[in-house]
Amino acid sequence: MALGAIACAGGSGPSEEAKTRAVAASIVGGHLDTTTNGVVALARAAHGQVGVICSGSLLAPNLVLTARHCVSQIGDGSSSAVLCGTSQFTAKYDPRQLFISTDTQPQGDSTLYSIKEVREAPGSSDVCGFDLALLILKGSGIAATEATPIEPVLDHAPGVKQAFAAVGYGLQDPNDEYSSGTRMRFDKSSVTCVGSKCPRLYDTEDDEWVGKSPVCSGDSGGPALDADGRVFGVTSRGDDQCTYAVYSNVADWADFVRSTALAAATSGSYEPASWVTDMGTATGGTGGTANGGSGGTATGGAGTATPPEGPVGPTVDPLGSSCTGDCPSDYKCYSATGTPPGICVPVCSASNDTCPTRYACSESLGVCTPTQSTTKTAHISGSCAVSPGAESAGGGSVIALLGMALSWLGRRRRRVA
């Protein structure tokens, strides 16, 4: 089974020798990590077996942050290739077949925690720019004695050259499909560029950044951890030799993360952590809209959340939160396609245009709509938006896989929490 996402190849650009091929996603050249138990394995059950497919971060006892392509099919599922501006998320995987493990090397008899609900990044079904998901576990989740939750960074984007640690369960050798399934860590990663300032070859969205990081198949969904051990990036895609990766910037999804964390706390009957309700000056949750129809241009949006007036209670600013109907007062559910799901956006008018950063007032709709510029369909050559096997002007292939590795644990008896 091969599942995954594809991006442009090469650290500073594709090499002449780079080949367009699918590889499975582990930390190459890292070390065994038996202590960062807040980084968990995402496993899938099939045909009487259970196997590690992705990585994730435990944000709260019953809440896991991971990549969206770890829980949703891309296109018709017949190809693992992802072309930015074309590839879309389609069917969700059955959450009853997905499980979480905190073990350093999950085995057939490992305790597996069941998933109650999967929440995908709201606003668009585009793969590029929306490769993030949250998993709410059943019951109260994972005990503090077994794993320590990892706090997310929700108030700022990373800086260029910022150091970070990459942790995940992926391949330790990009040429060995059986080298995954063990939690590994690499402490010498660094941020290469952020958002629109990244070179065109990386084809990053505004809510993504690129890191010099040896992540590989199976590390998808795993975290980039800052010096304080907080997660600020989620592994999405990279080159076939596992030398760099594109990460989803967690801070751009602040409201989505907070609102889901609040729902998880309610489901698990525990008090949410302070980062859930302490809005501070956090960068707002991102959402996006998709212009429907053949050949439509997908656009993403992110805003700066303004803390609500009055005391902060067990609620968060709804900006960017996923919706299918009503939103809180002074917000409406907006979707460019006219069909749910959409995102909650503030109401506005010609005389009251107070939209958040990266939102603009649509007078015809009476709401603030995302204004994030798109490059998703603009790149026809020399970028990700080419078919497999196409070459850039320099002659090198421009796409390569960073997906998921499947390390089957065997037919031994397993325990499900």
Topology of helices and strands:
Blueprint: E1 3-7, E2 31-32, E3 39-46, E4 49-60, E5 63-66, E6 72-74, E7 89-92, E8 98-101, E9 111-120, E10 133-137, E11 163-168, E12 184-194, E13 208-212, E14 223-225, E15 231-238, E16 245-249, H1 254-268, H2 274-277, E17 283-290, E18 298-304, E19 322-323, E20 331-334, E21 342-346, E22 359-362, E23 367-370, E24 400-404, E25 407-408, E26 415-416
Parallel strand pairs: 9-26
Antiparallel strand pairs: 1-24, 2-12, 3-4, 3-8, 4-5, 4-25, 5-10, 6-7, 8-9, 9-10, 11-12, 11-14, 12-13, 13-16, 14-15, 15-16, 17-18, 19-21, 20-21, 22-23
| Strand segment tally | 26
Number of helices: 2
- Determine the mean pLDDT: 75
In the CATH hierarchy, what is the class of the largest domain? Mainly Beta
**Widest sheet: strand ordering:** 11-12-13-16-15-14
Radius of gyration: 20 Å
What does the model show?
- With 417 residues, the protein is mainly beta.
- The protein folds into two domains: 3-273 and 379-416, Thrombin, subunit H (Beta Barrel); 317-371, no CATH class.
- 5% of the residues lie in helices and 33% in strands.
- The chain has a six-stranded antiparallel barrel with strand order 11-12-13-16-15-14. A six-stranded antiparallel barrel has the order 3-4-5-10-9-8. Strands 19-21-20 form a three-stranded antiparallel sheet, with no helix packed on it.
- Mean pLDDT is 75; it is low at 1-26, 281-316, 372-408 and 410-417.
- It has helices at residues 254-268, 274-277, and strands at residues 3-7, 31-32, 39-46, 49-60, 63-66, 72-74, 89-92, 98-101, 111-120, 133-137, 163-168, 184-194, 208-212, 223-225, 231-238, 245-249, 283-290, 298-304, 322-323, 331-334, 342-346, 359-362, 367-370, 400-404, 407-408, 415-416.
